[in-house]
Design brief:
globular, 9 strands, single chain, about 25% helix, about 260 residues, alpha/beta
Length: about 260
């Protein structure tokens, strides 16, 4: 399997990869409009809500995992098939595109984040939408050993929270019903995986960041709704520490229960 993070030079050396634009915004901006305005030449758009998540529900969270059939149909429609190698990008350091990359890698497909995202692309951007032929993407069940339930997240020995520190500490909560974090969870804001230029830290630096991790299989990662948590999982794998588990419901599911919440660091 390819590295979970690749640079522009790698993409240029592999012209047959499918480049996927996975921009997504929580502030009301339209990702479809952003794609129409400018994107990397040849890039197809993968819509978060239409392809990478089911409808929100209090008992499941804001972005439950899509059914395997929905995921497969959405990718097939934009020309991603069983044999495709996918490189995904956004304009948020990989925070959004990581969801597609991690889901594909979880199923054993070659997929990676474009290091630096849209801003790293050295050439001209375009408004031209590529014409693609649908490809066969076979639905597969999500591997149970790659996912964590709410009970496992509540009792796990190494649970990490990818949200901003102020949300983790419960000082503010702009989206979900309650503020705070899962008791015992440790805060690893996803921004800490990135250097000042928006690119990933080198693997050795990521190993230092996750110095308490010896085997990522012990790690359960969550965030607000199971999207940005994938960034930490990709960072762990990029660091050579192995593959962790995703708690898909994340805080948006947990905070809709009467389970205890912590607000101290």
């Amino acid at each position: 399997m390819i590295s979970p993070v690749v640079d522009v030079a790698w993409v240029e050396a592999h012209p047959n990869v499918v480049i996927a634009d996975v921009r997504y915004y929580l502030d009301g901006r339209s990702a479809a409009d952003a794609y129409a305005d400018r994107h990397i030449p040849g890039a197809v758009r993968v819509d978060m809500d239409a392809v990478l998540a089911e409808h929100a529900a209090p008992e499941a969270g804001r972005h439950p995992l899509p059914s395997p059939e929905k995921f497969a149909a959405g990718l097939s429609e934009v020309g991603i098939g069983d044999e495709s190698v996918v490189v995904a990008y956004d304009d948020a350091g990989g925070a959004m595109a990581g969801r597609l990359v991690w889901l594909l890698r979880m199923l054993g497909h070659d997929a990676a984040l474009l290091d630096g995202g849209l801003a790293a692309w050295p050439g001209e951007l375009t408004m031209e939408v590529p014409v693609v032929e649908p490809r066969v993407f076979t639905p597969k069940p999500w591997p149970a050993d790659a996912l964590a339930t709410i009970d496992e997240a509540a009792s796990g020995s190494f649970v990490i929270d990818a949200r901003a520190p102020e949300r983790y500490r419960g000082e503010t909560e702009p989206i979900d019903p309650r503020a705070g974090h899962i008791p015992g969870a440790r805060n690893y804001p996803l921004t800490g995986n990135l250097a000042a230029d928006g690119r990933f830290l080198a693997p050795a630096a990521l190993q230092d960041r996750f110095a308490d991790v010896t085997d990522a299989s012990e790690v359960i990662s969550y965030c607000g709704s199971g999207i940005t948590a994938c960034h930490n999982l990709i960072a762990l794998e990029y660091a050579g520490l192995g593959t962790g588990r995703l708690y898909p419901g994340s805080w948006s599911q947990y905070s809709n229960t009467d389970r205890p919440a912590a607000t101290a660091p």
